C-alpha cells in the first residue's frame, strides 16, 4: 500500500456526508453550500444579474495594478508563479479584477447600457487560517457596471440583504463612504499626520500601512490599533459636495427600500480600487471577531485603470464557507435525500426498476436504485441509511401485476400504487409527508 498523501494546508474536502470542521463548529454539509448558491441563482436574476465565468489563472499584473501593490493580498497572500513561457501568472485571489478584465477584453461597454454580472468560484489566498476561512475558498459575487448614481448602490445592497435574509443569516448591514480622487487626498494627508503622531501605539503592520495605505489602519483588528482608529479623523469631514450628495442619496434609497443599516466610519475595504460607497454585512453571531460575511463597494476608476473607458462600477463578494457556518447554525439545508428508493429483487425486476427511476426523475422526483442485488431487508436498511422518504420493493409479484407497496420509512405505513402512474402516485403521497419526516 502506498503512502497516504495529505491535502494541502489551508484546503478542505466537502463530502456529500456530514463534514465536521472543528470541535466547536456546527455540522456543515454539501447541502448548505448548494442552498447558498441556488439562492443566488434564484435571487440575483430577479435584479437583472447574469452569470459570468472567468479563468482561475490570470496574469499577475492584473491584480498588482487592479488591487494595488501595497495591499496585503498582492504583497503577502497571492499564489504567483512563472509559467513555462516566462509569464508571471497568479491564481485569482478575488473576482472583481477578473470580471472587469473580461468586460474590457470583450468590449462590453460598446454594447451600451448597464452590465450586471454575478459569479461563483474558487479563489486562493495564502493567509492565516481562521474559522470558515481557507487558502482555497469559494466566493459568490456580483458586479454592476455603467451607472454612477446611488440608486444602483442601494439596489445592490437590498439584493444582498434579501439573499442573506432568505438564508436566515443573522447580520447587520454597515455602510460608509470613502470619497473619491478629489476629496480623498486631503483626508489621506490628515489621517497620515494623525497616525504618525500615534505611531508608538500601532502594530508593526500598521506603521508600514501609515505610509503605503493609511486607510487600512482603520480596519486593523489589533485592539491597540482600534483604540487609535477610534480617535482618527473621519472621512465625512472631508467629503466634497458630490460625494456627500451621493452618500445622502444612498441612505435615502436604502430607507425607501426598507433596508436597515448602520453608518460605520471605520468601515473601509482593503483594496485600492474602492471609491465612495462601501458596505459590509456583519454577522451578529457565529463567526467571532472575523465576522464579515459579505462586503463590497463602488470602484469607479477600475475599468479605466485596466485599459477600458471611464465606466463606473459597484459590486460585492461573499465567502461561501463562512456563510455555510451561519446557514448550518440557522438549521437551513437543501433537501438532498432521495424521495424514492427502489429495491429490485431479480434481474428482470432490476430492468423494470431502472425504467421506473427514469420516469420518476423525469417528473423531478429524486430516485435511487439499489445495485447490490441483496434481499429486501438489507436493501431497506440502505434506504433508511440514505434518508429516503419512500421505499419500493420490486419483486415477481409486482412485476406481473403492475402494482406495488410504497412504504413510508418513518411511519412504516404502506400504500398500494400503480407502477404505470408511479410519479403521480408519489407526488400525491409526498404532499402529505413533509421532508423532515423521513
Task: Walk me through this protein's architecture.
- This protein is 36% helix and 21% strand.
- It has helices spanning 30-43, 60-66, 72-77, 96-105, 150-166, 184-197, 204-212, 223-230, 241-256, 302-305, 320-330, 347-362, 376-386, 396-401, 422-430, and strands at residues 19-20, 27-28, 50-51, 57-59, 79-82, 88-91, 115-124, 136-145, 171-177, 262-263, 275-283, 292-298, 313-319, 340-344, 367-369, 390-394, 403-408, 414-418.
- It has an 8-stranded mixed sheet. Strands 15-14-16-17-18 form a 5-stranded mixed sheet, sandwiched between helices. A 3-stranded antiparallel sheet has the order 4-6-5.
- Strand 14 (340-344), helix 12 (347-362) and strand 15 (367-369) form a beta-alpha-beta unit.
- Helix 1 crosses helix 11 (320-330) and helix 5 (150-166) runs parallel beside helix 9 (241-256).
- The longest helix has 17 residues, at 150-166.
- The protein is elongated and about 90 Å long.
How would you sum up this structure in a few lines?
This protein has 438 residues and is α+β, with helices and mostly antiparallel strands. It has helices at 30-43, 60-66, 72-77, 96-105, 150-166, 184-197, 204-212, 223-230, 241-256, 302-305, 320-330, 347-362, 376-386, 396-401, 422-430, and strands spanning 19-20, 27-28, 50-51, 57-59, 79-82, 88-91, 115-124, 136-145, 171-177, 262-263, 275-283, 292-298, 313-319, 340-344, 367-369, 390-394, 403-408, 414-418.
